[in-house]
Write a structure and sequence with these properties.
single chain, 556 residues, alpha/beta, 5-stranded parallel sheet, 16 helices, 25 strands, disordered N terminus
Amino acid sequence: MAESNVSTSVSTADIVFVGGPIVTVNPRDEVAEALAVRGGNILRVGDRAYVEQTVGRDTEVVDLKGRALTPGFIDNHIHMTNGPQRHWVDCTYAACPSIADIVAAIEERAARVKPGDWILGRGFQATRLTDRRNPNRFDLDPVSPDHPVGISNRESMGWTFNTMGLRRMGVQDDTPDPPGGPMERDDQDRPLGPMWDNTRTVFIMPTLPKWDVNQLMDGYSWMAGELNRYGVTTAFEAAIRNRMDTVAWQRLHRQAAPSLGVVMGPYPVHGEGWDLEGAAGKIFETGFATNFGTEWLKLGALQVGIDGGVIGQTAALFEPYSNDPTGKKLGSFRLTQEVINDFMAQCQASDWQAGLICHGDHGIHRSLEAIAHGREQVAAHDLRHRLEHAYLWNPRVMDRMAELGVIWNTQPPILESIGSEGIHGQWGERARYAFPFKSLTDRGVIISGGSDWPVGMYNPLQGIDILVNHRFGPEEGGEVLNADEGVSVLQAIRIYTYNCAYTSFDEGRTGSLEEGKRADLALLSEDILGVAPTAIRDIEVDRTYVDGRLVHERSG
């Protein structure tokens, strides 16, 4: 850290922060006394006397009053293209704890929607409902005879539909499951409405109404404001699929100075293979690759879905689900090993970083073997490939992860979203390998943090709480899952800051509070290093700065 014996020629700071811990997240994890900002960059950080040399007549001096200043948080995987979904019917367990409540909410919306128009809902979760099952078409049909209805589950990898919705998508009583797209069926083998994974590509996405550029811009603007409110200054958009997804961001950034850096993840593999005619496939075909763009809007990792999800219980496992009475359910894959191997070879050959979206231990294994295959086929510089999500592990795949040096791009709030029943019910005694933050850290794996919103909450302080305490949410009494898998507070902050910047090759300009880096800052309401670990989630963000500009200030 810089000392006070410096040149007498000193630049004047725009802002100086003093009077509280400056959590630098530098290579030595130092906590400084003060920090100065000039022209959007960090001018000085270190001892108070050293930093205060930059105070001039027009410098704003911020007294932290014991509060902590940290790097701006980064969300490593979030679906900002779903911003317009906030207008859909809220079917989360907080709003609708039972199927009857979901039905009532759909009935209320049907009274206000023109016959024939879609009614869309979001956020149901079978293991959280009092009914402990998925709503189906026979639940929804009586209150929606004149409307197609579709409701995404909290994970968005599963949906349920009424009969009119199924028919609108072309699903009849004799329609078979598409490869990698299971559908729940009744005792006569008719689709009941709930469906998962590749059914989205075959039936759902081609049929549902598309958002226009103005709806996306409104959703993005709202999303940026929400993320700033929680101290987030950069976010990785996890699924760029359509042309309007990128047009909307470009228009927003032309209108005003960005309050959020955006790293875009094109998603060119749909269903069973490549979709090179779609927007994401065409981005791949241009020859541009990871890091193309500006510091505010650039291409990130090419995304690919490997297996099913944890909330819908379609994640691919080596051993059967513990709550499956048949003892045969192993989850499902969206792609074959051959397709994933080809994907990784092409990423290697084209200088694309890859983000492999996997959930269960078998899905993780298949992903890691594809990364190894790609490297064997095409030698390239370190592309920092990463696994997205990856929640349910075993020791063998942990060792393989470390051996290959793959980044774990995980989302701690999903532990709370899945819940105790979801974790223990699916895996039983194997739950000791769920969300193994410390085990993988100890193996030398780099971990970064995010939310996967709308699946998890986009408050990084909630994620840091879970990283440290390894516990479920307040509605489950804060039950601890594997206490020995928690990490330290400083490690958790690094996971949501520097490590995220590293995954997008941005560690030279963001992710830590070091001289010359961009002044992306989160001023917390308390000293995060001084409060009890269980109180971390109660901390608020008083101010957020992006490029030295104040973009959020908490009222009151």
